[in-house]
Amino acid sequence: MHNLDRYTTWPMFARDIGPDSGSALSTQNLYGVHPFYMCIESDGKAHGVFILNSNAQEVETGPGPHLLYRTIGGRIDMAFFPGPTPEEVINQYLQHIGFPFLPAYWALGYQLCRWGYGSLDAMKTVISRNQAAGIPLDVPYADIDYMNHYEDFTEGDNWSGFPAYTQQLHNQGLHLIVIFDPAVEVDYSSFQRGINALPFDGMWIDMNEPSNFDTGTYFSMEEQLANAKLSCPISGPDSSLDVPPYPTQAVYQRSGEYLFSKTLCMLGKTARRSRNFYDTKNLYGWSEARDTYQAIPQVTGKRSAVISRSTFPSSGRYGGHWLGDNTARWEDLQTSVIGVMEFNMFGIPYVGSDICGFNGVSNEELCLRWHQFGAFSPFSRDHNSEGMPDQDPAVWPSVANAARIALGFRYYYLPYLYSLHYNAARYGHTVIRPLFFEYPKDEETLEISQQFLWGSALMIAPALYQGQTTVHAYFPSDTWYSLQPETYGQKMFSGFNDVHAPLSSLTPVFVRSGFILPRQAANTTTTASRLNPFEVLITVKTNAASSGELYYDNGDDIIPNDNIEQHPRVHWQFSFTSSIVGGVFTGNCETCSTAVKPPTLDTIEILGYPSAPNFSGFKLDGSSVTLDMSKTSYDASTQRVMISSKNLISLMALKKKFTLSFSNN
C-alpha cells in the first residue's frame, strides 16, 4: 500500500544496496527493478500496469492520486491487465512475462548458511549440531569462505575434503548449494575446472547488479591510465552516459555518487559489444539467472534451484530470490512479510528473507520468531554475516524447539506447498498471497500487511514484535479452523481476534473451510518425508463441496524442453461432499504418468463434520473397506473425523479415479 497523500519518488536502478527497514520511509533502490504496479479500486476491482524498460528510471506518486513515470533511455513497452481480481491481474501479468520455474522438491526444505565458516570443519560442526537437535534440514550452504581468496571455482586451504563431505551429505539425503559471484568467462580454465570439481545441487548467484566495490572517477585519459582501479569518465565527450543530464533519484538521493558508483562504467559494452551497459545494467542479474538455470541440468542431470540477488521481470522463470542483506532487528522481520508477498506479485514465488537477520547481532527471541515466520516462506534459509555470532537454531534450546515445531509443520504440508508451486509454474498463480487477493471487496484486508495466505486455504498470522504473546489477527468472513495444537479444530469468529502466539508452540495458522490439503508425515529431510504415505485434510464448507489437489513428480527430474505440460507427473484433483446421509470423497487423476510412483493415501482428516460416520460401512469404489480403528475416530465436540487404513487408496497411474463413500450413524 502506498500513501498517495504525499509526493514520493521511487528510483529503480539495480544497486548493491540492502534493505533499510529501520527508517520511517526508505525510497532507495535495491537490487532489482520491477516496473509493475497493481491498483485496487474502491469497488474491490483490480488492474495492473507493466512498463518494460531496462534503463535507470523512477516513479513519482502523489495526491490526486497520480503516478508519474520517467526513464532516461531505451524504449517503453506498456501492457495493461484488466483483472478484475488481484489474482487474475497477476495471472495476466505472468502470461505476459512468463510463468515461474518449478523448483526441485528438496529446495522447499529448510536451508542453513552463513558467511564466516573459517573452515570445512566449522561448517561440519554447525550442520552436525542442528541434525543432532532434530532440526529438519535439507540444504547446507557454502558461502564465499570455501574459495581461495574469494575467487570463484577455487577451494581454500581450510576446505580440503569438501567434495567428499558433499558426497557424505548426499548419502544422508541432503543437498548442497554453493555461491558464485560474477564474473568469470566460461572459456577460462578455472571455470571448466571448478564446475566439475564439486558435486553441487543448486547455485546461489550473488552481487549480480553487478556490484563493484571500488569504482573510481577520472577527468582525463592520462588520469585514467595512471589509475590501477576501474574508473569512469565524469567530464568530456566520453562521459555522456556516466553523467547523463538527469541521472534519476538513484543518484540524487545519494550525495557524491554517480550511476556507475559501486558498479561498472555506463559506457561499457555488453551483448558482444552490441549494447551499452547504460541500457542493459538492470538485465545483468536476469541474464545470469537464465544462463545458470539452463546450465545446471547439463552439469548435474537434474532439476535444481537458482537463487539470485538481482532480478528483473521474468526472472522468476529461472530462479528465486532472497530479500537481500537485511539486518537482525524486528523491523526487518516485519517488512520481510511484505517482501515475500510483493515478489509473488512480481512472478517470483520462490522467495524468502535471511532468517534471524544477516547484518548485526541477532538474539534468541528475534531468531525464534523469525524461524516461526520463515518456516512459511517458500525459500526458507537462516543466514548471517562474517564476524557475527552463530545464529543457527541449535545455538539456543528455545529456538531449536520452535524451529522443530514450525519446520515440522512446514514439512508436514510440503505436498500442499509443492502443489502450489506447480500451479504457479503451469498456470501462473501466486504461492503466497495477501488477504485482499482472496477478499478484494473486504476493505479491512487492504490494510493487512502482517498476515498472509498459502494459496487460498492456509492463513498465517506470525508474531513479529518483541515481547508479543498474542496476535491481533483478522479473519475475513468465512469459516476458519485453528491448526495450533492448543486450539486445534476450533472455529474462529470473523473479524479481529486475539490469538495466542506462544514462543514454545506453533505459529498461529488457520485453515479455511471448503478445501482439501495434501500432506505427508514430516521427517528431517524431504528425501525421507517423500516416502511416507499421503494424508489429506478436508475442511467442510456448509452447503458446498470441498476441493483440492495433489501434484507429485520424481522431485528433481528435468522438465522436458522446459515445458511442464510434457513433464511426467501425477496430478490428482479431489472433491468432498456431505449431507445428513453421509459423505463422498472422490479423486480424479488429471494427468497420470506411469513413470511416477506416489505413495498411497492412508489417512483422511475431516474438520467441521457434524455427524458421526458409520466406520463399518466405508466403501471404496463399491467395495467394503476395513479401517484401522486404532487410528480412526470421531470427536463430536470438535466435529473432527480421523479415517486411517494402510494402503487405503492407491494414487498410482493405473487407478485414475476413485470414490470413497460412507454413511452416518
Automatic annotation (TrEMBL):
Entry-linked PROSITE patterns: GLYCOSYL_HYDROL_F31_1
Domain Glycoside hydrolase family 31 TIM barrel intervals: 100-195, 196-420
Keywords: Glycosidase, Hydrolase
MF GO annotations: alpha-1,4-glucosidase activity; carbohydrate binding
Statement: the UniProt record of this protein carries the keyword RNA-binding: no
Listed GO biological process terms: carbohydrate metabolic process
Cleaved signal peptide residues: none
Residue span, Glycosyl hydrolase family 31 C-terminal domain: 428-517
UniProt-listed PANTHER family: ALPHA-GLUCOSIDASE, P-TYPE DOMAIN-CONTAINING PROTEIN
Family from the record: Belongs to the glycosyl hydrolase 31 family.
The name this protein goes by in its record: Galactose mutarotase N-terminal barrel domain-containing protein
Gene (name only): Cnig_chr_IV.g15280
